[in-house]
Description:
Layout: H1 2-22, H2 24-35, H3 37-55, E1 63-69, E2 79-88, H4 91-159, H5 165-199, H6 221-231, H7 233-254, E3 259-269, E4 272-282, H8 291-339, H9 343-352, H10 358-389
Amino acid sequence: MLKHIVFALCGCLYAAIGFAQTNQTEQVLRAIEQNNKELKAFQSLMESQRLDYKSSNNLPDPQVSAFYLPFGEHTTGDYSEFQVSQSFEFPTVYAARGNWIDKQEEQLQLEYSRIRQEVLLPAKKYCIDLISLAKRKEVVQLRMEQARQVFEQVQELFDKEQVGILQLNKAKIAWMQDQFQVEQIEAERRNLLLSLQKLNGGQAIVFDQKVFATDLKLSNADSLWQQKKATDPEIVVSIGLEDVSMQQIKVEKNKLLPNLTAGFNHQGVMGSNYSGVYGGISIPLWSGRNKVKAAEARYQYQQSKTEAVTTAMYSTFLEQYNQYELMLRKYDEYTTTLEGLNSENLLLEAYQLGQISFMDYYIELQFYRQAYDKMLEIEKELHQLKAEILKYQL
């Protein structure tokens, strides 16, 4: 009976709350994304690193030099010279380094996505816990009301001297235990809201969602893995680092080309002067030694690391997916079995008719209640495991 009452209440609640209520979890996640201090700090770091990357592709500072030589023994006038020059690497180096900078900026954005998911996954789990607590509270409140009614009935029988003090005390303790469970749930709820508030940059979170907005269905493992492989930041970051390493090889190869210098030179003596362009070339015979090989070695390392990361994540994914399927089968068994039972109502009727003692009633009642509580616990664990499997979608 209790099972059917709870299902009916949940259905009515869902209809009353509506679409906005069922998406309250998403609203909380968006708020945390905006207010989380760790994410804000990383955004500032990203901007700093972007500017740092761009500065690495700047031209060297121009050089200005001047000579005025009035001293010494000479029959001609004083000698003067003025020169302005600009050094720069071979033009293709700047193009290659520009592409390398673009790759690095993409990596920064992917790293932000990874950190963002590390923040939002715990937040989503807290929301799942809160929803599960709300469902448990409804059940416990119904149980508490039943326990109160039973206690009042036993109190009447005790007043009529039809039962002893021990049975009265047992009924009172059963009622007190249900009251304590409600208080425990409220304490857990407050702690979870504090955890969300911490993730939300210290701003309070209002959360009163009482039903799960999504079902427990998952696509097949192959389909999910292909999506995860293509979008999960942990994998995509590693693949992106391969692109960065490959682009670094191109940069180092281009840096083997000559560095160039161009400028203007003016020389004057005895009223005569000479002016013209100035040019120079610097051949990197020594500065580029082994740098291409080092870049190639980093690229090979990154390829191996990507392979290792992907293999490890695939293994973890399969473990989670298999565990999910096992728990889902168990959950379906619990729901199918409990939906067809009317045990609590039958037990209450048997007790009220005097067919069983209070102790027998209480012991049997606990058996069915534990089964129902286990079902709620499995439901919560399934939603949390689903959140972990679909973490890449956050």
